[in-house]
Amino acid sequence: MVNVAVDVMGGDNAPVEPVKGAVKAIASGxxxxxxxxxxxxxxxxxxxxxxYEKDRIKIVDATEVIETGEPPVMAIxxxxxxxxxxxxxxxxxxxxxxxVSAGSSGAILVGGQVIVGRIKGVERPPLAPVxxxxxxxSLLIDCGANVDARASHLVQFAKMGSIYMEHVLGVRNPKVGxxxxxTEEEKGxxxxxxxxxxxxxxxxxxxIGSVEAREIxxxxxxxxxxxxxxxxxxxxxxxxxxxxxxxxxxxxxxxxFLTKLAYLLVKPTLKKTLKRFDATExxxxxxxxxxxxxxxTHGNATHKEISTSIIQCVTFKEQEINKKINETINMLDN
Amino acid sequence: MVNVAVDVMGGDNAPVEPVKGAVKAIASGxxxxxxxxxxxxxxxxxxxxxxYEKDRIKIVDATEVIETGEPPVMAIxxxxxxxxxxxxxxxxxxxxxxxVSAGSSGAILVGGQVIVGRIKGVERPPLAPVxxxxxxxSLLIDCGANVDARASHLVQFAKMGSIYMEHVLGVRNPKVGxxxxxTEEEKGxxxxxxxxxxxxxxxxxxxIGSVEAREIxxxxxxxxxxxxxxxxxxxxxxxxxxxxxxxxxxxxxxxxFLTKLAYLLVKPTLKKTLKRFDATExxxxxxxxxxxxxxxTHGNATHKEISTSIIQCVTFKEQEINKKINETINMLDN
Lengths: 334, 334
Description:
Largest interface: A-B, 60 and 60 residues
Order of helices and strands of chain A: EHEHEHHEHEEHEHEEHHEEHH
Distance between the termini of chain A: 35 Å
Oligomer: homodimer
CATH topology of the largest domain in chain A: Isopropylmalate Dehydrogenase
């Protein structure tokens, strides 16, 4: 049985979607028990809407909520009775294997490190969102809060990302690229130039060299290693261009009678195409390298992303990802 | 009369499109003379296709070509008779006011600094591509080859970018943002945290604070200041997502008879929409802060982008951009 704590109070669609996602996950045929963390009355109100196996869902009352704008360190320290702090403590105490939240990224990243703690030898826990490409999906690691990384961090990101991609997302011998501004080995900033030979000589990964941002949406690499600032820029630009183009497309189809008619004709196919670009289809971003699993979903996650994220926690545990991370990282240090 | 040197040998569409762009530019009603730089026989062959005012086009023979893959520093040093070196020398010698090329970015960036030289006081010449947004266009500065910038560089980029945006592209009192991973002042990497207060206290610019990559396509800032590595990632991700989505869209419309019919109905409107996302519509990227103007167009530039870029050189000269840059940069140093 895999025990997953779910933040009922976090994200744009709380509490409706997290609860719905939890109910969906326990009905998926996996051995999952969900701990719904949040205001008890709110959770009970939502649960009343569904039929579900009662012993698969537990309620953990948490009276406080950490808002997105709050300074993370302060919020984690002060709001001991928040859903994020309580959820992370369930992982720390070994009651749960994982914590899934659509709430404040900053608080989840800080809390993950402070409360759950890092695996011995892991210098920095990277946040590794998955995003859609022409070939399926890729992992962008790190997009977290730890900017200004060192080269040794990037090597650890590559190892952890490879393990996650292979054993949780099912891509065999994943291709690892380093985010760069050109494909020649001498290209890059100081960090990339230092990390490149380390990655090239790293026996545990399938390193394919530099990847330009332009190639990422094409799926040239399964795991794209980068420092968090650049990773965040890449990820958010991806989302920004996508939503701007989809917006412009919608406008286009509502221009006239003819374009509206065109929309009716192309709608089913178009919906399938646009779905491919919807990052919320693929589960949340794991914060890797912690003594337990912490997953940050999109702020606007629906029950589908929450439920996918919960189910991925099962694979994470079954595949003993943290044992594998521990082994590979501590081999590196020898 | 503004004299513009045009690289006939550079880019995917050389020599056809550069020559066509030049012919188009001199017919635009502006006082332009173009120096076509490249293999004389090739240029003459292309020019034979057109009717044009003979005294508005000069041919400068250059027998060598710098290829995209060549190491830039070596190429500039060795290939003295290349179109890029000869074109840049025309600017250095005062024969031409500007040089426009679709050729090797690296060689243009290195050559611009080494041959044309920087304006006194300019620490680094940034490359500032223009790209389309929901509001029109924005300038991303720096996307050049000079990675690992210092905070003082970013302040100069902001000043030069503002001047270009206002006086060449016609945006009054342009909003300047710094590319960041959050909008709060305490967010960012070391560089951004150091540059932020300097930009905030800079009287010559209209600083609006941090801009997340997600906001860039919406046009939240007219000038987005960044270090070149992050800028390059943002720009190339923009282009990558755009082309991937357009590709997927094309597939969608060719799926069945109905979707093909839909395409016929929506085609004129859709073309207009997609054109908005085509960066080649808006002219090339200036390399600012040099004693002369050097413009890098997209590698796949057509005559339209070349011609727009040539015409922008007129505005650049008429508006005395380099005099303005000189004044603002050297005020900063006092």
